[in-house]
Amino acid sequence: MQHLDIVDISARYGSHQVLRGISLGVDRGQITSLVGPSGSGKSTLLRVLVGLLPPETGHVSFDGQRIDYSNKKNVKAIRDRFAIVFQQYNLFQNMTALDNVTIAPIKIRKRNRAEVIDEAEELLAKVGLKEKMRSYPDQLSGGQQQRVAIARALALKPELLLLDEVTASLDPELVSEVLDSIRQLAAEGMTMIIVSHEMGFVREVSSTVAFMVDGKMVEVGSPADVFENPKEARTREFVNKILQH
Amino acid sequence: MGYAINFGQVFEYLPYLAGGAWLSLQIAFLAFCGGLVLGLLGAFAKTFGGPILRRIANAYVVFFTNTPQLVQIYFLFFALPEAGILLSSYVAVLIGMTLNAGAYLTEIQRAGFSSVRQTEMEAAETLGMSRWQQVRYVIVPHIARVLFPPLSNHYILMTLGTSMAAIFGVEELTGRALNVNSETFRSIEVFTITGVMYILVTLVASAILGVAGRALFRAKMRIV
Q: What is the predicted ipTM?
């Protein structure tokens, strides 16, 4: 049984069909990267998984249990187990880094304050921001904000971490600090689905690479297979294009 | 025949008029606070409510923003007694102004709701926050800052609007000015002084709001 099993998911924004029958399996501790041209539905798939966009058809199972995205309780339950980090960080602007990280465990999960604060300080230290705990988002660089957002997601102790183009809006010199944080998580065995355009990074950390075009899954395989020995013509075309620069 | 200006006689009534100004401030403050709560509920209903709740909130706003405040208070003061509900003039004015403010503040606060960054709301949602938690931790702190200027404007307007209470015999600043006028017949002096007192009252209110605003702009949500 697969840890996460995505079967034939379709989804649309209004009249715009974004996902057309996506299937994908993810094993525990595995890192799956979604790659493909812009508009292929990679981010949308992550949004479906965390219940921000209800799927039209298909279903998702986690540890063999079917997730009912039309059921509020079910969606809330799945958000206890999945965490997402967004491209634009989406930090709460009126809270310090530490407050951003602790709000969900303290106010939503109602966990012990002292314990949560200890953990949050550890998490922020882990992403290299121990000194910035009391800073507000507007006092932090993009890379620092994104690392706070990663710490905020980890504070929920997710079983599955979704990273949605987390380096896409960062200056090049800030990308590596965020990637380092993700590498560390990978080494710890966190199950992740990563949407990224950092192909070198994808190749390095992924156990599986899934190539999507126009809301369809074109090819799924090991990084070596997909990047060096693509089966599909469309994958080859994409790989050739990105290898050119 | 010339009119000899003489403020001396009217100055004797200054403490009396100041008492009226104090009552004006009270009415404005209470009605504004009540209106803020009504407006928050209205904005909440209009933003997140189902079709029925939205329609009710809409009807409320349309009714109270499209009829004169004076008529609304007349209704409470003169029409309700016909139905056996007798309100004192003070209470009728207070309720009328509160309901009216609620309608305007619904619209102002709704605009604040929709100015909240959608991305922050999504983050709140995926962290597992309930609607009320989103309102409390994300929306209200945000709109408190964005809405401060339009809200304080409305508060000043309401302070001046309290002069309407004089029509119903409430002895706030305008009511007391009318009393002094009919005792002294010094109209120019009485209403000049009354005008100056309104200016002082609104300037004081602006100053207080300014200080509160600066505090609010710095106010951040504390979790730990």
A: 0.86
- The pTM score is 0.74
- For B37-91, how does the pLDDT look when each residue is reduced to its tens digit (9 = 90+)? 999 999 999 988 899 999 999 999 999 999 999 999 999 999 999 999 899 999 9
| Count of domains for chain A | 1
Least CB–CB distance from A90: residue in B122, B133, B219 = B122
Question: Do A103 and B141 count as a contact with CB atoms less than 8 A apart?
Answer: no
For residue A101, give the chain B residue with the closest CA: B223
- C-beta atoms of B128 and A76 within 8 A: yes
Tokens representing A194 are 């990563």
Q: Is B122 a member of any domain?
A: yes
Return the CATH number at B176: 1.10.3720.10
How do residues B198-215 score in pLDDT, each as one tens digit?
999 999 888 888 787 777
- 3-class state of residue A218 by DSSP: strand
Q: Nearest CA to CA, how far is A228 from chain B (Å)? A: 36
How many domains, chain B? 1
